[in-house]
């Protein structure tokens, strides 16, 4: 007799919706939701996820602990690898571009840390926001926004270990930004909002279409080279008129410029806010559309 086929545990859409919106009608629970109901349930999910912020923090901390379990230095390897990369690229590109290391290394260290531990890492991690929590989503009645918080906390801890390198470079070259660095706080707040939006957007899309992470990785690789990370914007001269059209440049500069001791331009802030508003709008629509089906896609 053939063995019984293995079955995967399933969670009904009705159960997941009822957990967050007990008063929903049977029509809504079948998945035939109108946009008003979708937005209402998505808002309830986010509110409940914010209420469970300590749980999201604990899950993110646990992810970092498990990632470096058995390691002697643990997350300090992030600091060491970042320092090695900054030193190597600083020497190579500083020589190629004939740059003064006293001004180039602070720029490079801040740019690499913000890109690798911030923008690049968040976008890459966002693709697996819900996929990596398959068992949790299928077995527990938790708001999906908890998984978004989990990703944000995990990347925040990674950045906290990497940000030590730019401060060391500032100390070596006496390039402290002073109180101007406080202007990076609004930029970081904008980054947090954008990071949550990226997780809500890419998390749902990648749960449905498993080829999207490879596409995102290719796009981010190209974005790294066309964004002033290892090269300075002033090196383009008058040919750099198109930089404000690059959303990665604008979002990077609202945090990087204050850390280097000067405020970002008004045009940069206007572009960053416009791109962020568009991203949040698209992410909210996509999250409201995909959220009821995540339990079946992961």
UniProtKB/TrEMBL annotation:
UniProt keyword list: Cell membrane, Membrane, Polysaccharide transport, Sugar transport, Transmembrane, Transmembrane helix, Transport
Database matches in Pfam families: ABC2_membrane
Topology in membrane: Multi-pass membrane protein
InterPro entries (alphabetical): ABC2_TM (IPR013525)
UniProt-listed GO biological process terms: lipopolysaccharide transport; polysaccharide transport
Main localization, broad class: membrane
Domain of life: Bacteria
Residues covered by the ABC-2 type transporter transmembrane domain: 57-257
Regions that span the bilayer: 72-93, 113-131, 152-176, 182-203, 215-231, 267-287
Keyword Cell membrane belongs to the record: yes
Example GO molecular function: ABC-type transporter activity
Compartments, as annotated in UniProt: Cell membrane
Gene Ontology CC entries for this record: plasma membrane
Stated family: Belongs to the ABC-2 integral membrane protein family.
Name of the protein in its database record: ABC transporter permease
